Amino acid sequence: MAQKKRILSGMRPTGPLHLGNLYGALANWVTMQDEYDCFFFIADWHALTSDYEDTNHINGYIRTLMIDWLSTGLSPEKSTLFLQSRIKEHAELFVILSMITPVPWLERNPTYKDQITQLSNKDLSTFGFLGYPVLQAADIIIYKAFGVPVGMDQVPHVEITREIARRFNYFYGNVFPEPEAILTETPKILGIDRRKMSKSYNNAIYLSDPPEEISAKVSGMITDPQRARRSDPGNPDVCNVFEFHKLYTDPETVETINRDCRSAQIGCVECKKKMGGNLIKALAPIREKRIYYEAHPDLVEDIIVEGSNRARKVAGATMEEVRGAVKI
Ligand code: TRP
Ligand code: SF4
How would you write 163-194 as a 3-class SS string? Predict the structure, then answer.
């Protein structure tokens, strides 16, 4: 059998995952496991770039994130699941790459500029924050990944990674392939207030929300804003609840809702109840697995240790090559 191509991606441990994260990335990772040699890691050093002042939550968030991954179907048998800070080689490569990365490449990075203005409550004028993409480049090329499955927001980082890899190869010889961003279609689900689902907007439905919480959030969802009264016809095309139905309700019922909404045969309260019930059912298996892993923290730690050992072998071999190429 031909060797599977390697892909790699990571997430920062900044809190529990919500449905936006699931469809933005994780669901794709789960399906990619069969086709690719997958490396998925928790970027705890990257979490420090913005949350360096208070690190009390980070350890808990690392466990929560790994449990979110495992309960949605990432599997340590299929993929290498690991923790960035356990592989010191990332830091070594980061140092070397930082020597060859021109500062203007980092200063014009769009996410750098965005975050500095958006997170104005934090002091992000640090060396580490500016160097965020250099560490990310090290994460990616140390495994010689060919592809990086990420959301649109990460494309500039993959682009900088390619430029850094090219510059390294130009100075020291061909060590690194240039990775590509792999973008996948994602459903357009929004937060309960119709804005982008985000932890900071307080509008997210979390994978770990208990059923009562999900019901409460769904009943508060904003529907078609033009539909003021039960007797008004609605428009499912602009309704976020309907987008959720497409994911969680059988196609026949979705068609019925589509029709009945437009003719005011169904009200939003009933429609949401149906959707909420289906959503809770869909999340039930994830919830069960979560409860299992929460009761077995040692198992989660073992998975992190084993995955990190596997990753370290690959990273170590690349660093041998790098030291040879750099003659150091
Ligand atoms: N910057 C990514 C994010 O915020 C996380 C990340 C760190 C990453 N290193 C990576 C993603 C390497 C892909 C590859 O989502
Ligand atoms: Fe949306 Fe359903 Fe209300 Fe129609 S009936 S507007 S699809 S919630």
Answer: HHHHHHHHHHCCCCCCCEEECCCCCCCCCCCC
Give the Cα separation of 195 and 183 in Å (integer).
Answer: 22
Which ligand has the shortest distance to the CA of 132? 1
Whether this model's pTM surpasses 0.90: yes
**pLDDT tens string 290-323:** 999 999 999 999 999 999 999 999 999 999 999 9
Task: Establish whether residue 140 lines the binding site of ligand 1, counting it when its CB lies within 6 angstroms of any ligand atom.
Answer: yes
For 52-104, the pLDDT digits (tens) are: 989 999 999 999 999 999 999 999 999 999 999 999 999 999 999 999 999 99
Spell out the domains of the chain, with CATH numbers in brackets.
Answer: 6-189+297-326 (3.40.50.620), 211-290 (1.10.240.10)
**Ligand 2 contact via 275 beta carbon (within 6 Å):** no
Cβ of 239 less than 6 Å from ligand 2: yes
Atom 8, ligand 2: residue with shortest CA distance: 268
Within the chain, strands assigned E span: 6-11, 37-42, 80-83, 147-149, 180-182
